[in-house]
Design brief:
single chain, about 240 residues, 2 domains, 5-stranded antiparallel β-sheet, two-stranded antiparallel sheet, disordered N terminus, disordered C terminus
């Protein structure tokens, strides 16, 4: 027999034995999924410890975007801690908070956050067009590259152009064998990215320097080194 705990609005998960996945046996808590639940009402979200932590400045998308992405990373770190201590009830509450976090923002901002709600630092992703895998290093509310870079990469032809979030991605080396040795990251529009937990683990020499691998959840959490990686946020490494 196994003990089941609620991990979402409509599904439960067995914690009594590990599950087999693409990369072998996963931990007892399973893969991290924080897909936003659009059916959760504002009153439900604000119950308990969630509270109204969003300031008036969050009415502006750029501010809301930064707050949302940072808070998701913070909650993810807390979730990892609870799973490692096998405190699964607390972990489930954190997963639910992550699913519903964007509902703590005003409705116009919620709509803008919805598209990339699961994309934040440490999440594994896949390029929709080229198929290569990677892990998110940094999130920008809009494209920060210069006009020449955007022209060469035809950013204007994307459905949402440059006025959409862009993400710095540390890519899986085997997926881009012809990349120049100096190139460590790519810079990708949200239109071209999709969350892919099966992309874990990412093979790149910088992964272990920047992230802590969480095999039980098949994901990564950033460490303090990431704040020192500013040299990678420039055009030459995209």
């Amino acid at each position: 027999a196994c003990t089941r705990v609620q991990v979402g609005p409509s599904n439960s998960q067995c914690l009594g034995r590990p599950r087999a996945g693409r990369h072998g046996t996963r931990g007892r808590f399973g893969r991290l999924s924080v897909r936003a639940n659009a059916d959760v009402g504002e009153a439900q979200v604000r119950e308990g410890s969630a509270g109204n932590w969003v300031e008036e400045a969050s009415l502006e998308f750029h501010t809301a975007f930064d707050k949302y992405k940072a808070k998701m990373v913070q909650l993810k770190k807390q979730l990892v801690g609870e799973v490692r201590l096998e405190r699964y009830n607390a972990a489930n509450k954190l997963k639910e908070r992550m699913r519903t976090l964007m509902h703590e923002f005003p409705e116009p901002v919620q709509r803008d956050l919805q598209n990339g709600g699961e994309l934040f630092v440490g999440q594994t992703v896949r390029h929709k067009q080229y198929g290569y895998r990677g892990v998110v290093l940094k999130c920008d509310a809009t494209c920060k590259a210069d006009d020449q870079w955007m022209l060469l990469r035809r950013v204007s032809t994307l459905p949402r152009g440059a006025e959409q979030p862009f993400y710095h991605i540390l890519f899986h080396k085997a997926d881009r064998p012809n990349a120049q040795p100096a190139v460590q990251t790519t810079y990708i529009a949200e239109d071209l990215l999709e969350l892919d937990p099966l992309a874990f683990p990412i093979e790149h020499e910088l992964v272990t320097q920047i992230f802590t691998e969480v095999a039980d959840l098949e994901t990564y959490v950033p460490n303090d080194t990431l704040d020192t990686m500013k040299d990678y946020w420039h055009e030459g490494l995209y």
